[in-house]
């Protein structure tokens, strides 16, 4: 039986062959009666339990937090930190492997990969388990095809074209190298060749380009592997090689393109946004912003960094689009603002557009109407889905003069519907991206003024946290399995992200904190003594865990084309280690909801 | 099958080697030993043990970390091709093994006076008796706990006449939800028997029964193997 212990089940897959041997030799098997209490809070555990069959309920003061099943293990806190945080009770006849505490501690000391599972901070745990994928990224780049990284177009110049003409053609095509036809030969000229010819050799600008190009063209086929191209570049000491597709030159592969495969090409996107001269020119970089999310994630970049890079690029895109589309009056009198997750800088895969326009006075109605339609329409074409709550520039409610919006905010504050509270919440996250950003600051301080000291108003606002349950992991699945329905999905956005984000909004509003990112709010609230430093860290940790799992679900949904499932996570499809991390994160959310509930006395709302 | 007080008295008196008197002392309370032998055949008189494994059970724990495992070299004749297929122990595997007369003393010390748990444990005990008679002129006096009997009692004990019984080990494991391990490995078989024993003992204590399949919804007919 000990030989049947599944060593491929995380975290045990981190153990060496020899360590697995030691573990198998030291295992016992325990039988738990239905209803048997295995651990109680504060209790130290002599064994780490790994369930063979049956199920164990995890309870906290009577609330069911999770149901553990086969391959799940418990309780790392009781083993490592010497005190269980929750009650563990067998729900049915259950068999468990028992791994002695001394051995677990010994393995933790010897094997850092295994130790990561026992970190107390959930996001650190998640990082450690995500890291396993990272080593694959360089490998996968080398095995990519040249065509995946190379860029066109191939521009052909005649040998007698002047240096000025050559430079202009390359500039127009936004490329750094061009082909030169001369006497039936093909040569290559680069931007650097042109610059050196003029600056160093003092050639006149109308000198023919054939005098500065070279004819030793190093080339690869578009179907070749990147590593073949890299070998050629190293051997010939070139930073770029010519690319042929089906015999024809189709462009170049440069070292920076290869870098783009490794690190994403996010560093190239701002330049392409800046160079755009029409809305159509922005479509490609807008597409690239979305494409790099997947690439960055595949390469193991942390979700908060992906969100930061993405929101920075999105903001540049919005600014450029605004510049291209806004008529002078709107540019002079308006402030473009982004709100919701975009404002908090927490959006990765695009879910909706939350944006608006603030004006310092009336502008010509026809111009405004045209701009509203053009701006929201362009974003929709770029792949930003319309906002279901209609929080968009297109909606006159969200693109109006300051005094109108302030009046609207007051109406929402007086209105007692959840929709009104949601609008306030979205606006509370607003950030001005371009134009007269002082207008937004004014609107926000007006809103803060109306809310300040109004405990009942803030409590009503906070009560949105109660919109969705935070389910216990595994409860539903067990239930559904019993009635034969195999759906166990958890909506991670409703169960995890929203309660944290909105709870922090409410607390920030209560204390007049103006930071818009959830991380920033948590930091400010910790400073202000709203909760302990440790709890603040745990909450941020939990948020990042949810964002990571959500991003995975979103990318999966994009792959399958089933966008309505973008926030659904199926615990049964996760590894035991992932389930364990998710369970911890959900526990933190429940604690936080409890805190919000008592802080704002939400029980009064029923 | 139970070995009565008179029987125990007789064998205790006739025990050849008195250093084995501990076999007649009751074992530590709430302990038992699950045991399984792999043999060259099914006839205790003619066949031999090729592997034996035992694990102690203490309370609700199966102490696999303190297991007893041995591969045994048959002394009289070579294992037949049939049993090689079943146990996947080839003559080469058995070559390094010890003969039963060397294995038995350690096994008996491991078992002590504890009750023996197994699936058709009587067969295993009869196999061991053969060697024990040679070694210390005694049959194993340990109480026996028969897993299939506990299972029968929980499932068919109140069955109406005419009910078809199915006491196959696979069926026991399936009804109890015990994951099947590679069978015909002595240690795995002993551990599975121990798991079944703990589950059945607890069900008995709680008065829980195993539901019987209704007619027509029984398990599919065995397809060999």
Automatic annotation (TrEMBL), chain A:
PROSITE patterns: CNMP_BINDING_3
One Pfam family, short name: cNMP_binding
Keywords, sorted A to Z: CBS domain
Alphabetical list of CDD domains matching this protein: CAP_ED, NT_GlnE_GlnD_like
Statement: the UniProt record of this protein carries the keyword Signal: no
InterPro entries, alphabetized: CBS_dom, CBS_dom_sf, cNMP-bd_dom, cNMP-bd_dom_sf, Diverse_CBS-Domain, DUF294_put_nucleoTrafse_sb-bd, GlnD_Uridyltrans_N, RmlC-like_jellyroll
Top-rank lineage group of the source organism: Bacteria
UniProt GO MF annotations: [protein-PII] uridylyltransferase activity
Every Cyclic nucleotide-binding domain range: 11-125
Protein's UniProt keywords contain Phosphoprotein: no
Protein name: DUF294 nucleotidyltransferase-like domain-containing protein
Source organism (scientific name): Roseicella aerolata
Automatic annotation (TrEMBL), chain B:
Gene Ontology MF terms: 3'-5' exonuclease activity; nucleic acid binding
Taxonomy, superkingdom: Bacteria
SUPFAM superfamilies: Ribonuclease H-like
Keywords: Exonuclease, Hydrolase, Nuclease
One GO CC term, this protein: cytosol
SMART domains cross-referenced by the UniProt entry: EXOIII (SM00479)
PANTHER family hit by this protein: BLR4117 PROTEIN, DNA POLYMERASE III SUBUNIT EPSILON
UniProt-listed NCBIfam families: PRK09145.1
Protein name: 3'-5' exonuclease
Originating organism: Roseicella aerolata
Phylogenetic lineage: Bacteria, Pseudomonadati, Pseudomonadota, Alphaproteobacteria, Acetobacterales
């Amino acid at each position: 039986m000990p030989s049947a212990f599944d060593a491929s089940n995380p975290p045990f897959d981190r153990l060496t062959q020899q360590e697995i041997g030691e573990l198998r030799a030291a295992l016992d098997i325990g039988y738990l009666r239905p209803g048997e209490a295995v651990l109680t809070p504060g209790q130290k555990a002599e064994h780490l339990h790994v369930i063979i069959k049956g199920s164990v309920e995890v309870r906290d003061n009577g609330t069911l937090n999770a149901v553990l099943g086969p391959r799940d293990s418990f309780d790392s806190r009781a083993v490592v930190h010497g005190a269980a945080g929750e009650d563990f009770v067998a729900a049915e006849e259950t068999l468990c492997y028992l791994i002695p505490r001394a051995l677990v501690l010994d393995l933790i000391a010897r094997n850092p990969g295994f130790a990561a599972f026992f970190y107390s901070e959930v996001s650190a745990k998640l990082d450690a388990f995500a890291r396993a994928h990272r080593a694959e990224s360089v490998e996968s780049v080398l095995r990519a095809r040249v065509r995946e990284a190379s860029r066109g177009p191939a521009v052909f110049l005649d040998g007698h074209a002047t240096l000025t003409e050559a430079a202009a053609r390359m500039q127009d095509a936004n490329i750094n190298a061009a082909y030169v036809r001369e006497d039936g030969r093909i040569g290559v000229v680069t931007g650097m060749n042109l610059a050196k010819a003029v600056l160093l050799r003092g050639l006149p600008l109308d000198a023919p380009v054939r005098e500065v190009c070279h004819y030793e063209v190093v080339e690869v086929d578009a179907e070749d592997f990147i590593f073949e191209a890299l070998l050629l570049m190293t051997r010939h000491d070139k930073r770029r090689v010519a690319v042929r597709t089906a015999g024809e030159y189709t462009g170049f592969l440069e070292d920076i393109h290869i870098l783009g495969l490794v690190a994403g090409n996010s560093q190239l996107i701002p330049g392409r946004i800046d160079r755009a001269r029409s809305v159509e020119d922005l479509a490609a970089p807008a597409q690239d912003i979305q494409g790099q999310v997947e690439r960055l994630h595949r390469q193991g970049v942390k979700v908060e960094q992906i969100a930061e890079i993405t929101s920075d690029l999105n903001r540049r895109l919005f600014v450029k689009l605004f510049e291209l589309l806004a008529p002078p009056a709107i540019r002079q009198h308006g402030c473009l603002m982004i709100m919701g997750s975009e404002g908090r800088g927490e959006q990765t895969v695009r879910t909706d557009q939350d944006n608006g326009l603030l004006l310092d006075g009336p502008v010509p109605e026809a111009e405004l109407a045209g701009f509203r339609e053009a701006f929201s329409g362009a974003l929709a074409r770029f792949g930003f889905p319309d906002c279901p709550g209609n929080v968009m520039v297109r909606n006159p409610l969200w693109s109006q003069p300051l005094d109108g919006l302030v009046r609207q905010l007051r109406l929402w504050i007086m209105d007692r519907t959840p929709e009104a509270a949601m609008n306030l919440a979205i606006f509370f996250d607003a950030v001005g991206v371009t134009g007269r950003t002082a207008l937004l600051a004014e609107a926000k301080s007006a809103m803060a003024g109306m809310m300040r000291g109004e405990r009942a108003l803030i409590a009503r606002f906070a009560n949105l946290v109660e919109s969705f349950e935070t389910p216990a992991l595994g409860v539903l699945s067990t239930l559904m399995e019993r009635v034969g329905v195999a759906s166990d999905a958890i909506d991670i956005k409703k169960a995890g992200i929203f309660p944290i984000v909105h709870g922090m909004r409410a607390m920030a509003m209560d204390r007049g904190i103006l930071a818009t990112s959830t991380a920033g709010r948590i930091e400010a609230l910790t400073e202000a003594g709203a909760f302990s430093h440790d709890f603040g860290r745990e909450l941020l940790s939990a948020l990042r865990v949810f964002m990571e799992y959500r991003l995975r679900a979103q990318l999966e949904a994009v792959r399958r084309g089933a966008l309505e499932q973008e926030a659904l996570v199926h615990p049964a499809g996760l590894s035991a280690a992932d389930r364990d991390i998710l369970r911890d994160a959900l526990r933190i959310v429940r604690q936080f909801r409890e805190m919000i509930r008592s802080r704002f006395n939400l029980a009064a709302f029923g | 099958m139970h070995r009565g007080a008179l029987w125990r008295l007789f064998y205790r008196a006739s025990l050849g080697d008195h250093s084995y008197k501990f076999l007649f002392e009751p074992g530590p309370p709430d302990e038992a030993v699950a045991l399984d032998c792999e043999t060259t055949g099914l006839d205790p008189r003619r066949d031999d043990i090729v592997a034996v494994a035992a694990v102690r059970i203490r309370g609700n724990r199966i102490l696999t970390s303190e297991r007893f495992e041995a591969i045994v070299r048959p002394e009289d004749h070579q294992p037949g091709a049939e049993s090689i297929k079943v146990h996947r122990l080839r003559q080469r595997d058995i070559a390094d093994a010890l003969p039963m007369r060397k294995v038995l003393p350690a096994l008996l010390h491991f078992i002590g006076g504890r009750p023996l748990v197994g699936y058709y444990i009587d067969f295993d005990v009869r196999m061991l008796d053969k060697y024990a008679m040679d070694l210390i002129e005694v049959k194993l006096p340990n109480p026996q706990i028969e897993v299939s009997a506990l299972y029968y009692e929980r499932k068919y004990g109140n069955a109406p006449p005419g009910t078809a019984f199915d006491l196959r080990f696979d069926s026991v494991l399936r009804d109890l939800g015990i994951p099947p391990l590679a069978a015909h490995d002595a240690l795995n078989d002993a551990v599975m028997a121990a798991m079944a024993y703990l589950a059945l003992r607890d069900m008995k204590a709680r008065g829980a029964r195993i539901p019987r399949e209704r007619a027509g919804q029984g398990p599919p007919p065995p397809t060999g193997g």
